[in-house]
Every structure is written in C-alpha cells, then in structure tokens.
Specification:
The complex is a heterodimer of chains A (370) and B (392). Chain A has 13 helices and 7 strands. By secondary structure, chain A is of the alpha/beta class. In chain A, strand 2, helix 7 and strand 3 (194-200) form a beta-alpha-beta unit. Chain B has helices spanning 2-21, 33-36, 48-62, 73-87, 111-115, 127-139, 158-165, 168-171, 201-205, 218-230, 280-293, 311-321, 336-348, 372-375, 379-390, and strands at 68-72, 91-95, 120-122, 143-147, 181-186, 211-214, 235-240, 247-251, 264-267, 272-276, 298-302, 305-307, 324-331, 357-361. The relative contact order of chain B is 0.12. The chains are: A alpha/beta (370), B alpha/beta (392). The structure holds thiamine diphosphate and magnesium ion.
Chain lengths: 370, 392
C-alpha cells in the first residue's frame, strides 16, 4: 500500500491513487493509470513534441542572449517543459492563467510572443502584454502573490456563471508563503473554479524542498479540504491528462485541485545563480535520464508515429525561431525616457504631469551639448 | 548624461558576473551597459567568487585579527556578522538562501559552515515568517539578524515589522526588548527586474519603534552592523546593493568612531551641503569632485542614521553653507528629503540662501531597468540642483 497517498483521500470518495501519475515512462513506454488517460492522435503527439522542442529552443536562446549581455537576467525553464506544455495544452480558450516568472512554455501555449518575455528580462518593460487578450496574466515576481489573484478571478467566473476556470502556477518554495496558504483557504471555502499547478522543481534557489515541507506538497491540499494529486512533471501526457481533468472538474463546479508536478530545475535558478554552490552534479545526471523531451521522441520513434524528416523539420523550425528571436531582441529599442511617466494612472495626475514636464525640460537642456 | 551613472560599481558588478559565467559580457550595441551589470531576481550576483577570493586574500594578508584589511562592502558586513556571532552566542542569522549559498549577494558566505545550521538558518520562503519567528526568538533571548533578499520583498513582512516588531516594547510598558536586525539590500542601478531596485526606507522611518540606518561604505558597514546587532531595539539595516562591490580598508579591530545614530561629514565644503545616505553618498562625493572644478565647494554629509536623524550635524553644516540639496533614490514626493527639508528649514531658516532642493526618484513605480539611469539621481542631476540652488 502506498504510504504517501493523500491523507483523507477517502473523504473525496476516491480510492487513494498511486503516488505519481505517469502515462509515459522515461523510456517512452506508454503505461496505464487507473484514473487518468489521454487519447491523442499521432498528429497531436507530434504537435506536443514540437511545442516542447520550440520552448526549449526559446529558452536556450534567451540564456545565450543573457550571457552576451543582451538580457539582464533570464529564468530558465529547462527541465520543466512537459509540466508547462502539458498543462498549457489542457487549457480552453476561456480559462485564465496566472503565471510566475518561469512559465515561458505556458506563455507559448497562450500565444504570447516570446519577444515580450525577452523584453521583460532585457529591462525594456515589466511585461507589457494585455492579460485579457491572451487569458494569460502578467508574470508575477513576488513569490506567491498571484495565487490569490487567481482565486479572486475564479470567484468572478463563479459569479458570472461562466464555463471557465483559472489556473495558477507557482513553485515548491512558494508553498511556504502566507499568500499561497490563504489562497488555498479562499479557494476551498468558495469552492472556486481554480487549479493550483505547483511545479515542484525540487529547489527554491539554493533551498531544497525539505526546507519548505515535511510532507509531499500535494498532500497539503487535503488539510485545506480539496484534492491534491502528484503527477510526473516530466511526462507531458500525464500533465495534460491530470490538468485537463482538474480544469473540467473546476469548470463543472467541483472546486479547486492542487496538482503537484514533480519535476526538476535542470538549469541554474536564473542566469545569475551558481548551483554548484549548493547541489551535486549527480542529481542533474539522474534527472537527465528523465528528460521530458527525450521520452516523447522515443515514443514517436518506437511507435513509428514520426520519421526522421519530421524531427529534422522541427529542429529547423526551432533554429529559425531562435534566430528570429535573437534578431528581434537585438532590435528592441530602449524605451523613451519619458515613458517612465506613462501608464502609472488611468486618469491624469497633477504631480506626475509636473514631474514629466520638469524632466523633459531637464533632458532638453542637454540637447546640443557635446 | 546617462553614461555617467554607470560608473565603476556597475562596471565591477558586470565584470564579476562575466567572470563567473565564464563568458564575456556583451558590448553588443553599446547599450549593453544597462543589462550587462547583471544581477537580480532572486539570485543576484555573480561577484561571489571574486569577492570571496579577495576576502580570503585579505584575511591572510591583513589577518582577521591583524587590523586593517581591504574589503568589499559585502565582505565587510560578512566580517561584522562573523565577529558578532563570535562575541555573542545568542546572535542568529536567518533568511532565504543565507546558508550554503551564503545569500544571493554572498553577505553570509561561510557563516553556516562555521557556525552551524542552528545559528545560520535557511528559512522557508516566507518573509512574514522570517520576521515573525525572529520576534519569537528575540522574546526568548536571541538576537536574530534577518535577511530580506531584496528591497521589494520586505512588504510581505510589513505587518510583522510595522505592527509587531515596532510596537511590542510600548505594548509591554517597556518590559520587552526586541533586538532584531532586519538587513535589506536596497536601491537600484544593477539592471535588475521589477522589485529588486526599490528604496522603501520611509515606510520604516515613518514607523515609531524602529531604528533605521543605511551604510554607504565598507568600514561603516562593518561597524554599523555590529552596533545594530548590539542595539536592544529593532534596527532596519539598509545596504546599498549597487555599492556592494566597492572596496575600502577596514580596521577589523578598531572601535567604531561614531555611535550608530550619528551622521558624518564625509567631505567638508563651504558653499552647499549635500545630504545623502546609502548608495547616493558616493554619487554626491563624485558630484563634489566635479563641482570643485567649477570652483564650488560642496560639503557632503552621510546621514548614516535615518531614525534617529542627526539633525544637529545637518543644521550646523547648513548654517555654515546656507544651501542644502538632499539626494536619495526613493521618490522625492513624501520621501525622506521632505522631512529633511522641513527640519532644515525649521533649524536654519535665517541662514538659508535658497530653499532646500531635493533630487530623487519620480512619483512612479520603479521603471524597467533600461530606464533606470534616467530615474536614478546621477552626478548631473545633483549638479543641476546645485546650480538651481545658486539661482536664488
Ligand atoms: C516575496 C519574495 N521573496 C523572495 C523572492 C526572491 N526569490 C525569487 S525566486 C525565489 C525562489 C522561488 O522558488 P520556487 O517557488 O520553488 O520557484 P522556482 O524559482 O523554483 O521556479 C526567491 C526566494 C521573491 N521573488 N519574492
Ligand atoms: Mg522551485
């Protein structure tokens, strides 16, 4: 019997599920799960593979651009592609996403132009996409704050009687924040249509999970009164299946679910970080064997669902995407200095107008000065 | 104008992170300076290696017990923490990533190794929890030194600081002492993303019950952190993150030459008094050098302590010079300069040749980093204010 089953799982009328929902093994074997399944056409599997490869390529390019001084910093999603693409492709257009700063793969699924992400990390804007246009909220850097926004948004969905759900992304470290715990409470007492998608990448900068929790994170949910489930975060099929089900349940009035996507941050926390100070290389080696992309490739190969030509085409597309992104990043202009005063308020603000005028005059005083 | 703000510190940070990354930081289109300074979001700085090595070299050369050694500001605080922990077993260090990593800026580098996990605590990721439990530890006789990773992340702890830490002594009619230090790297100029460049000092100076200080150089940093830890009141300790890699000689065995609550004239002058603290002290010193070439003598005061304020030092200076310019990174509107302007006016009204002028950030959120050189006061904006004060 699995000792890690959610405490009180019976209370939800569910038999204790196996600890980790997995539908595709690291070797690319399709496996069965009593509660979850995905029925994907070969075309859909290839499409998922393409997503995974392209977002990894975007990420790689961004890391390179940072190394070359073109971005101030970059938070890499390396290793977390399946968690993000699996959950991102489970969304309906009406569902609303609340990301952290690392959800480049989910942003991809919501058609946010990756150049916007690069612009944030380059320092030309704080994000700058319209959340309502993509149903993808702005990146939130203050750990955990967005969980409450998601629950509030879900409460709005509830009141509108709309067929939609909110999904909020956060890390293992974030689960310690007061805001996150409060969001669990709000979601529970309101039976809000929200999915909590926690990417447990094992690390919060230098702190391993043991510094945040004595129990598996998904088991936190039961104490708050809603189901929690752990999914293989490197298995794009499982992430898709589990998130789809949680979203469906939320949309149909079933309330919140906590999904713990068990994965690994394969890169540094950000490009400023030096993980050799706090973790051993063998850990990374072990997780490389569970790479989220390799297993899909193996599955496609084994089942003859894709040929060499397909893989080459995806590689080519990735290279083009990377090149194009690089070019557009280098072309990103610095904002006009007076942009500092823009978008602070909806309506005119006397103090700001005064400061803007003074600063414009000050800048003008340099014109013509060598 | 903007080129000037980048200055040696920015360059140093960028160079160091380039070294650590093992890649050359970009020159690409000449505008790379804005980003190449590179730090931030959780894991700042690359300087780690360089800093640590410099300090180790410093130790063997100068020796930890052997008086003067050249240290970065990061290392100076590190040495101050180390000394305090050696002197008093009740001193604890706590915060996010302060253990093995040594903090994202490496301020606590090596402390967990030397003092153990009971005294150097990697806390869960929750700022309210850090301060709240520090209060409990203080109630039990400990002297916690809390690290808030970046200025913008102190706000989740605001309730514990403002409503609990600051007020417990009064609530107990003086029975309770809370010797808690809250260290906050603050200010911008490092090319960081949002929430990593803010100057939240007035939230705390506006709260009775907290002492608020800001160091500006390695020697002060070393002494002030030790004094803050010895202080029986809560101390909010601001560290000028963009000056973290500034180096200066520090006498580790010297006694501090000033009490924690006192300011210092860091450059004497006769024509204008510049008031600054933290990162802007160096900017003002640079402005004073530039002004000298124009035949103007600027006196620079490093306030060091914001609460209490060493108003006597300030008033004495302004009464001599007759002119006063306040410089800080935080927004001018309702900023610390507003208090200074009011007090200087009260104390020096008949000596003033011009109104007290203020240079600082705008009444906006901190802008994206590619605009920060415009937002932050630099040498030119300080000199512009100096010019204006002579126009009266
Ligand atoms: C309130 C707050 N405190 C501290 C930080 C600095 N910080 C940035 S990322 C991070 C760790 C986050 O870990 P986790 O939640 O596991 O997410 P991950 O970065 O691993 O995706 C920290 C401490 C922050 N951004 N916000
Ligand atoms: Mg994490």
């Amino acid at each position: 019997m699995n000792t890690n089953a959610p405490v009180g799982a019976e209370a939800y009328g569910a038999a204790a599920p196996p600890e980790l929902v997995q539908l595709l093994t690291p070797e690319g074997e399709r496996v069965e799960h009593p509660d979850y399944d995905v029925d994907l056409t070969p075309e859909q599997v290839r499409s998922l593979y393409r997503d995974l490869v392209l977002v990894r390529r975007i990420d790689m390019e961004a890391v390179a651009l940072q190394r070359q001084g073109e971005l101030g910093i970059w938070a890499s999603l390396l290793g977390q592609e399946a968690a993000q693409i699996g959950s991102g492709r489970a969304l309906s257009d009406q569902d609303m996403v609340f990301p952290t700063y690392r959800e480049h793969g989910v942003a991809w699924c919501r058609d946010v132009d990756p150049i916007k992400l690069l612009g944030l990390f380059r320092g030309v804007s704080h994000g700058g996409w319209d959340p309502a246009e993509h149903n993808f909220h702005l990146y939130t850097i203050v750990i955990g704050a967005q969980t409450l926004h998601a629950v509030g948004y879900a409460m709005g969905i509830q009141r509108d009687g709309a067929e939609a759900a909110a999904i909020v992304y956060f890390g293992d470290g974030a689960t310690s924040q007061g805001d996150v715990n409060e969001s669990f409470i709000w979601a529970a007492v309101n039976n809000a249509p929200v999915v909590f998608f926690c990417q447990n990448n094992q690390w919060a900068i230098s702190e391993p999970l043991e510094k945040q929790s004595r129990i598996p994170l998904y088991r936190r949910a039961s104490g708050f009164g809603f189901p929690g489930i752990r999914v293989d975060g490197n298995d794009v099929f499982a992430c898709l299946a589990v998130t789809r089900e949680a979203l469906r349940n939320a949309r149909e009035g079933g309330g919140p679910t906590l999904i713990e996507a068990y994965t690994y941050r394969m890169g540094a926390h950000t490009t400023s970080d030096d993980p050799t100070r706090y973790r051993v290389a063998s850990e990374l080696e072990a997780w490389k064997l569970k790479d989220p992309i390799e297993r899909v490739k193996a599955y496609l190969f084994k089942n003859e669902l894709a040929d060499q030509e397909f893989f080459e085409a995806v590689e080519l597309e990735a290279d083009e995407l990377g090149k194009d992104l690089r070019r557009r990043c280098l072309e990103l202009p610095d904002p006009d200095p007076l942009a500092i005063f823009e978008n602070v308020y909806v309506d005119p603000h006397a103090l700001l107008e005064e400061e803007r005028e003074q600063f414009a005059a000050y800048l003008a005083s340099f014109e013509g000065v060598a | 104008m903007t080129a000037m703000t980048t200055g040696p510190a920015g360059t140093a940070g960028g160079a160091a992170s380039a070294t650590q990354n093992g890649t050359a930081n970009g020159t690409a289109n000449g505008t790379a300076k804005g980003t190449a300074k590179g730090t931030a979001m959780g894991t700042a700085q690359g300087t780690a290696n360089g800093t640590a090595q410099a300090a180790r070299a410093g130790r063997t050369a100068g020796g930890r017990d052997g008086g003067t050694t050249t240290l970065t500001l990061v290392r100076a605080i590190n040495e101050g923490l180390r000394r305090s922990m050696e002197e008093d077993p009740k001193v604890l260090v706590m915060g996010e990533d302060v253990g093995k990593l040594g903090g994202v800026f490496r301020v606590t580098d090596g402390l967990q190794k030397d003092f153990g996990e009971d005294r150097v605590i990697d806390t869960p990721l929750a700022e309210s929890g850090i301060i709240g439990t520090a209060i409990g530890l203080a109630l039990r006789g400990y002297r916690p030194v809390c690290e808030i990773q970046f200025d913008g992340f102190v706000f989740p702890a605001a309730d514990q600081i403002i409503s609990q830490l600051a007020k417990m002594r009064m609530r107990s009619l003086g029975a309770v002492r809370l010797p808690v230090v809250v260290r906050i790297p603050f200010g911008g100029g490092i090319g960081a993303v949002e929430h990593h460049s803010e100057s939240p000092e007035v939230h705390f100076t506006h709260t009775g019950g907290l002492r608020v200080v800001a160091c500006s150089n390695p020697a002060d940093a070393y002494h002030m952190i030790r004094q803050a830890i010895r202080c029986d009141d809560p101390v909010i300790f601001f560290e000028p993150k963009r000056r973290y890699w500034d180096k200066a000689p520090v006498d580790l065995d010297a006694e501090p030459d000033l009490p924690l609550g006192k300011g210092r004239v860091v450059r004497p002058g006769t024509d204008v008094t510049l008031l600054a603290y933290g990162p802007m002290v160096r900017t003002c010193l640079e402005a004073a050098v530039a002004a000298e070439e124009d035949g103007r003598s600027l006196e620079v005061i490093d306030l060091r302590s914001l609460s209490p304020l060493d108003i006597d030092l300030v008033a004495e200076s302004v009464q001599r010079t007759g002119r006063c310019v306040v410089v800080h990174e935080a927004p001018v509107f309702c900023g610390y300069g507003a208090e200074l302007a009011a007090r200087v006016t009260e104390r020096c009204f008949y000596h003033l040749e011009a109104p007290v002028l203020r240079v600082g950030g705008f009444a906006t959120p901190y802008p994206p980093s590619r605009l920060e050189d415009h937002y932050l006061p630099d040498l030119d904006r300080v000199l512009d204010a100096v010019d204006r004060t002579f126009a009266y």
